[in-house]
Design a protein that fits this description.
The protein has 135 residues and is of the alpha+beta class. It has a domain at 41-134. It is 19% helix and 39% strand. The protein is built from 1 helix and 7 strands, in the order H-E-E-E-E-E-E-E. The strands form 2 sheets. The protein has a 4-stranded antiparallel beta sheet with strand order 3-4-5-6, with no helix packed on it. It has a 3-stranded antiparallel beta sheet with strand order 2-1-7, with no helix packed on it. Strand 3 (64-67) and strand 4 (70-79) form a beta hairpin. The longest helix has 25 residues, at 11-35. The termini are far apart. The relative contact order is 0.17.
């Protein structure tokens, strides 16, 4: 009877190399995609309902910007992770400077969504605000 060794040369090395290649691509993909999610600037489109004029306002996150009678501040802006259904979310604070009522600090204070603005609507008699982009 003839004995043979049933050892496939390099099988373990190939599977180990395949494991490290897959692990590398998963790690690189996660680190690259997380960098592009948070933005430093937020673009809002503001409609003046009286004059019917649209204005694009660029906000830097954390800084206060005045637009006519409104004081606008974007605290955080995020892009979605998915390319097939992009969505932009931003945490916006809006204060009406003509309102002298000290009980109401903000006219709007919450998250805005570009895909469906009706989730958290901005309700103002003169202005309407939409989230346009985050970069």
């Amino acid at each position: 009877m003839l004995l043979k060794k049933n050892i496939l040369v390099g099988k373990n090395k190939i599977s180990l190399l395949f494991f490290f290649i897959i692990w590398f691509f998963i790690f690189v993909n996660n680190s690259i995609s997380k960098d592009n999610l948070d933005g430093t600037y937020t673009n809002l489109k503001i409609l003046d309902k009286i004059s019917s004029k649209n204005t694009l306002v660029k906000l830097k996150n954390g800084e206060l910007t005045k637009f006519n009678d409104l004081s606008l501040k974007s605290l955080k802006c995020k892009n979605s992770e998915f390319d097939d259904n992009p969505d932009i979310t931003a945490y916006i604070q809006v204060q009406d400077l003509t309102n002298n009522n000290n009980n109401e600090v903000f006219v709007f204070n919450g998250w805005m969504f570009s895909s469906s603005p009706s989730i958290a609507p901005f309700d103002h008699p003169v202005y309407d605000i939409w989230l346009v982009s985050c970069y």
